[in-house]
Specification:
The protein is of the alpha/beta class. Helices cover about 30% and strands about 10% of the residues. It folds into three domains: about 45 residues, no CATH class; about 210 residues, NADH:ubiquinone oxidoreductase-like, 20kDa subunit (Rossmann fold); about 90 residues, Cytochrome-c3 Hydrogenase, Chain A, domain 2, CATH 4.10.480. The strands form three sheets. Strands 2-1-3-6-7 form a five-stranded parallel β-sheet, with helices on both faces. A two-stranded antiparallel ribbon has the order 4-5. Strands 8-9 form a two-stranded antiparallel ribbon. The longest helix has 15 residues.
């Protein structure tokens, strides 16, 4: 082991790297060749392309009369979507990619959501999403730069909360920019901003204060060293055009897949947001509480509650309110759309609602088993304050 200091070692490594690497900027890269450019540069004429579509129609047993529609679909311009991730766990994206066709909500003439494959291939152009996109590195940045430069607008999807630049800038740096800088850049030309997940919508877990700090009203930003904030709060802080940008909160930890997809499809079809509640959430998904459609509600009305996860009430499917269920105060589609392609919801699995779609759900105050107010998923709500 040599006696070289850490500073000398870092200097030596940096010097060697600089001899073999040159910094590449976006301007040094040629424009990305589109499929249309590639066809034209390869000598493929419109006539040749039409002949190809006719052959494709025959192969798929599509009537020749529908061939023009096939051409139109192949050349149709799709809604651009830029998807940014900040302080998050990727759970929201994991949820979205598991979306399946669902006919409960009137989103379009077909009256349904669709699979993620069909949505991406036919309804939108996912121009930037670090986990799903093929390009990486400088090519990924080129894709994003081209998408957010579009003056006609695009949908900006954001998941994860944002660290405060002054307090927690070191917790999120990407491509030499802080999270707030990245959001401001991407939001400039956005037609709409969809905050996916409770972290993006309300700050979520990164903004949680914790039990010891709830009694301290001056600790408004919580104990998080990042000073986490929601996307809407960040936009309001920018002021100007950013404060008036249309924002749709799709809360949940994570949100239901069909709720995310349904919100995006609604905007694509209608070029406007659906009716929103006071928390900027689509009423078509968040208009009812989880309690209203819960199959255990009849036991609530009869005063039959689970007192322990292994008692007779639990085995009989009684109401989970006394086990901390937050269904009566939580607005979400869990008991209507359900989870995992309509398979079920937490209460069907024997566990109460955590209230994850509501602001500050990590810090919600409730009544514990001894009748004392406190914080925690298993401290129950006061039954006297709940409407049947």
């Amino acid at each position: 082991m040599s006696n070289v200091s850490k500073k000398e070692l870092r200097t030596s490594i940096a010097s060697r790297l600089s001899q073999h690497m040159e910094v590449e900027t976006l301007d040094e890269w040629p424009p990305i060749e589109t499929l249309g450019d590639r066809l034209a540069n390869s000598g493929v004429s419109r006539r040749s392309f039409m002949k190809y579509c006719i052959g494709l129609s025959a192969m798929m047993a599509i009537p020749i009369s529908l061939m023009p529609k096939l051409v139109e679909a192949a050349l149709a311009k799709k809604t651009s979507v830029v998807y940014l991730s900040f302080q998050e766990c990727t759970g929201c994206l994991e949820s979205l990619v598991n979306v399946f066709p669902n006919t409960r909500y009137n989103l379009s003439a077909t009256n349904s959501t669709d699979s993620i494959a069909n949505i991406i291939l036919s309804a939108l152009s996912l121009d930037y999403q670090e986990t799903l996109m093929v390009p990486s590195g400088i090519q990924a940045e080129i894709s994003k730069a081209a998408a957010i430069a579009n003056p006609e607008g695009y949908i900006l999807v954001v998941d994860g909360s944002l660290p405060d630049d002054k307090k927690g800038a070191g917790y999120f740096i990407q491509h030499g920019m802080t999270g707030l800088d990245l959001l401001k850049e991407a939001a400039t030309n956005a037609a709409a901003i969809v905050s996916v997940g409770s972290c993006a919508s309300f700050g979520g877990l990164p903004a949680a204060k914790g039990p010891a700090n709830l009694i301290n009203p001056t600790n408004a930003r919580g104990v998080s060293p990042t000073g986490a904030t929601s996307i809407k709060a960040a936009l309001d802080g920018f002021g100007g055009i950013y404060k008036t940008k249309p924002v749709i909160n799709v809360s949940g930890c994570p949100p239901i897949a069909e709720v995310i997809a349904g919100t995006l499809v609604y905007w694509i079809l209608n070029k406007k947001a659906p009716e929103l509640d006071s928390n900027l959430r689509p009423k078509m998904f968040y208009g009812e509480t989880v309690h209203e459609e819960c199959y255990r509600k009849e036991f609530f009305e009869e005063g039959l509650f689970v007192k322990s996860f292994d008692d007779a009430g639990a085995r009989a499917g009684h109401c989970l309110l006394m086990m901390g269920c937050k269904g009566p105060t939580t607005h979400n589609a869990c008991t209507t759309l359900k989870w995992n392609q309509g398979t079920g919801h937490p209460m069907e699995a024997g566990h109460g609602c955590l209230g994850c779609a509501e602001p500050d759900f990590w810090d919600k105050k409730s009544i514990n088993a001894q009748g004392q107010q406190g914080v925690g998923f298993y401290n129950h709500l006061d039954p006297a304050t709940i409407d049947d």
